[in-house]
Design a protein that fits this description.
Length: 410
């Protein structure tokens, strides 16, 4: 085992330094491998094995750094926060319900505020600080939520008007009429909010412990579960009782792209990059996106695909992939940030394993306000279950903002 692989968990700064040391070792070993191929038409087996070990260590170190960064940015709920009287009353009633099952206080509060939820129908709203903390953590864990356009609604769905021909614009004098294009076709998109649930369990002993922060506990329990479920749906969801993932929309070759489909370019090789100049297709992918979208664009792929691309170099010998330049930053590919999502498919025949685009303009996440909890002390005795729900939807809102790389032949 290499020294890099044997590193213990430490501070963010130590993990950041480890990441850069790992990448330096990766570059040195990969350069040796390339030199061996050029001299002998094949790389030494020991060099290949060493490169694989360092590549795994690089991924593990990046994951450790991400977890440490996430933990460091996780303040306790309510820290340095001044509650108003209504918030304190809601929090007190909510804690009483969570610990003892007494819902009278919450019923009275929700009747006063004319809240739609009731205990039998859908549980009770968690206090707003806890809801904000759940959503904040989800944004840090879920790659798509972190980069998409997140819209909060109070109804069942979000509706947006759009033009099939694209937005109309032009220059006119101050007093000139503003003509509408004859071929302008206006329609609307609907993004319904679907129900997402988690069901953490606790013992009554835990609930009776006054030291335990119940708001913090429920946020810890459900944020990861919610983020994992919605993260998968935003990428590949089929739209049935869940959001529609961007990979589940109709696709068309970029040369035949039309609104309503996601454009792609292909590598020309089934399930692989081209053998000669494999990185060229990444430049084609970048420039398939219009300049206005490239300003805030990023790559998205899974760890395995990123590992393959990490070996690519320019004609002058620089690596296209670079580790984060500063703490809290993302790795970059061709100077564009890289979002890592394990929901993206592995490289295979006709897979769309790399996406590039301005996801904030291209994909919308719809959050219906309110996270609800229903206490269930009966279904799994001696444990108390907390049926926690939130409503979330999502879908592509601008089909010109995201482009895909397909590992196949035209």
């Amino acid at each position: 085992m290499t020294q890099i692989e044997n590193k213990a968990y430490g501070t963010e700064a130590a993990a950041f330094e480890d990441l850069h040391r790992a990448f330096s070792a990766f570059r040195e070993t990969n350069d040796d491998r390339i030199g061996q191929i050029e001299q002998r038409l094949s790389a030494d087996a020991l060099t290949e094995e060493k490169l694989m070990r360092i590549d795994r260590a690089l991924d593990e170190t990046k994951g450790r750094l991400d977890r440490l960064t996430l933990d460091a940015a996780r303040p306790r709920i309510g820290a340095d926060r001044k509650d108003d009287a209504a918030s304190r009353e809601h929090k007190s009633a909510f804690l009483t319900y969570m610990r003892a099952g007494e819902a009278g206080g919450l019923k009275s509060l929700e009747a006063k505020t004319m809240a739609a939820a009731s205990g039998p129908d859908g549980g009770y709203l968690v206090p707003q600080p806890a809801e904000r903390e759940i959503l904040r953590r989800m944004a840090q864990i879920s790659p798509m939520r972190a980069i998409a356009n997140v819209v909060e609604i109070s109804t069942h769905s979000l509706r947006r008007a759009f033009s099939w021909a694209g937005p109309q614009a032009g220059w006119v004098a101050e007093s000139d009429p503003r003509p509408q294009s004859a071929n302008q076709q206006i329609s609307d998109m609907t993004f319904p909010a679907m129900e997402l649930y988690a069901m953490p369990a606790a013992t009554q002993t835990l609930l009776d412990d006054a030291v335990v922060d119940i708001e913090q506990w429920i946020a810890d329990e459900v944020s990861v579960a919610f983020a994992e479920q919605e993260g998968a749906a935003f990428v590949k969801g089929d739209g049935v009782n869940k959001p529609t993932g961007f990979l589940n929309y109709p696709m068309a070759q970029q040369s035949a792209w039309s609104f309503g489909k996601l454009g792609y370019i292909d590598t020309g090789v089934a399930g692989a990059f081209a053998a000669a100049s494999p990185s060229d297709i990444l430049f084609d992918l970048v420039y398939a996106l219009k300049a206005g979208y490239r300003q805030n664009a990023r790559f998205m792929m899974n760890r395995k695909t990123q590992s393959a691309i990490r070996k690519f170099k320019t004609t002058t010998g620089e690596y296209l992939w670079e580790p984060p330049a500063t703490l809290g930053a993302a790795a970059t590919l061709m100077n564009f940030p890289v979002s890592e999502s394990e929901e993206m498919p592995d490289i295979a025949t006709d897979s769309t394993s790399v996406a590039f685009g301005d996801f904030h303009r291209g994909y919308v996440v719809v959050d219906r306000s309110g996270v609800r909890v229903l206490r269930d002390p009966y279904s799994a005795k001696p444990y108390v279950l907390f049926y926690t729900t939130k409503r979330v939807g999502g879908g592509v809102q601008d089909f010109d903002a995201i482009k895909l790389l397909k590992f196949g032949v035209a």
